Amino acid sequence: MVVAGLVLADERLTPGRVAGVGLGFLGVVVLVGEGAWGGGNAWPYLACLAGAVSYACAGVFGRRFRRLGVTPLQTAAGQVTGSTALLAPVALTVDHPWTLPVPSVAVVGAVAGLVVLSTALAYLLYFRILAVAGATNLLLVTFLIPVSAILLGVGILGERLGLRDVAGMAIIGLGLAAVDGRPARWLRRVAAGGRGEEGT
Fold it and tell me: What residue ranges are annotated as transmembrane (predicted)?
């Protein structure tokens, strides 16, 4: 969101959005907990930071396809085709798939789900939302990834939802509301209406 605000003229970096980004990061830190920041190995955290920056750059770069008249379907198809062309030689060289045992039906189904739902459909939705709602609104989903992971862990794996998890999700929710701006505008309208009624 910060990258979009700095690079794109129509994605203004307002104080509310800056505050929302800060709250979102704080919420993620609360969700992760202080125990994950020990150990002294910074590489995993730097890798996560690099992934977040890459995700932001992808959202900003993807906006140019709208100006070029490329449809979301064409953009998603090009993205998947290009990544396949780049990664297929690496996979063939490193994994030697012809030496691996024949996968089971469950494995084939899982891979098919990843291909169809988590990749093809996800990229189509990604570029569609990017074209309609803009990079800032699209990239709000990055704050929801740890929230969805925790909720899936509670619902599917039977994990326990702690007070820290609830607090972190609440802080992230406040950050998303600050970035979106509509709750603040609604509160200002309500306050202005109340003052108008008092004046009459």
Answer: 18-37, 43-61, 73-92, 104-126, 138-157, 163-179
